[in-house]
Amino acid sequence: MFLAAQCAIAGFVVSDVRPAMADSTASVSKALTPTSSFAGASGKLRVRLHAKPVSGATGTQGSFSVSARHLPTDSSSFDLIVGGAKVGSVQANSAGNGSASFSTTPHGRSALLGVDPRGKTVVVRDTAGSGADVLVGTVPDDDAGSEACCTTDGEGESECEDVSPDPTTGVVTCNGTIPLDANGAPINSCLPDPCTTTVPPPPPGTATVCCVADSGDEEAQNTECDDGLDQCAANGGVLVQVQLPADFQQGDDPCDLNPCQSVTPNPPPPPSFCCVAQSSDDSSEVEAPECEDMSADACASIGAPPVNGACAYTDQSGNPASVPCP
Fold first, then answer.
1. Radius of gyration of the chain (CA)
2. Position 2 pLDDT exceeds 50
């Protein structure tokens, strides 16, 4: 038995006891689901994260990738959105096949991984063609409830560790400092690293920005860009590596390239209804036209008069009724 100096903070404990680490490695492979307009498309996401610092690095280390097949061939670039923030793009070939890969230690064709994908919705969106979502999926989070804990290594350097709650009490014990976001709530991931204000320099021809999505904005329409990286985790943002154009000059702001916002997805067409003539086996019998739910183009192609509103409705007495066709 030993006595630990502890301080409870809203269900969290700061202690000199070694905390229970989250699972050291999280490995996920999951198929992405095509939307109804792109039923022939398919895709898969893969996540591999080390919750505990490895090889002297600080924060969560690992990789995230998305591969896709049979994407619309009228586009070659597709926005990749994670948790409401655009983090990069999937580049597709003429057959509609493409991929994107990210790593906390990027090299080759991998870009910087600056977001923890676990528990977040992933969207592959057509940017140049229809502007619609093509593939959608949510990354499982088998260790929901874990929190970030800032500790100091033997050399006095700050490092971040993912700490799991006690299975009995539900309390997260941190033998260091619990990092808080801008609203004073504990930060639940070491990716991006909330325990350091230092971000590795980006490769030549790129820049790193912080993309902060509005809460609940899965469309990535109101995501803000900030080139101040030291408070990215505290502001609930993700680090995104931006490819700079050839004419980009020193002193230019990479946020002017609008790297965080996705294209506006095209909304589904509004429902339309029309009165369709009915056929009969008996040519001498004339059947009254009926109101049917059809697209505007389909109604126009058969010369069916449009109906203002829906075919079925509820009358003033609360009874179901249908629109009479002339």
1. 26
2. no
Q: Reduce the secondary structure of the chain to three states and give it as a string.
A: CCCCCEEEECCEEEECCCCCECCCEEEEEEEEEECHHHCCCEEEEEEEEECCCCCCCCCCEEEEEEEEECCCCCCCEEEEEECCEEEEEEEECCCCCEEEEEECCCCCCCEECECCCCCCEEEEEECCCCCCEEEEEECCCCCCCCEEEEEECCCCCEEEEEECCCCCCCCEEECCECCECCCCCECCCCCCCCCCCCCCCCCCCEEEEEEECCCCCCCCCCCEEECCCCCCCCCCCEEEEEECCCCCCCCCCHHHHCCCCCCCCCCCCCCCEEEECCCCCCCCCCCCCEEEECCHHHHHHCCCCECCCCCEEECCCCCEEECCCC
> What would the pLDDT profile of 197-218 be if each residue is shown by its tens digit?
778 788 889 999 999 877 554 5
Of the CA atoms within 13 Å of residue 207, those in its CB half-sphere come to 24
Output the CA–CA distances (angstroms, integers) from residue 7 to 103, 161, 166, 193, in the order listed.
36, 19, 16, 23
* Tokens representing residue 153 in the block: 């290594």
| Cβ(58)–Cβ(157) below 8 Å | yes
Report field, pTM of the whole predicted structure over 0.85: no
Q: How many alpha carbons lie under 13 Å from residue 170 in its C-beta half-sphere?
A: 4
Encoded amino acid at 139, one letter: V
Strand order in the sheet with 172-174: 6-9, 12-15, 172-174
For residue 70, how many other CB atoms are within 10 A of its CB?
A: 17
State the pLDDT confidence band at 91, using cuts at 50, 70 and 90.
Answer: very high
**Residues 6+ positions from 144 with CB-CB distance below 8 Å:** 119
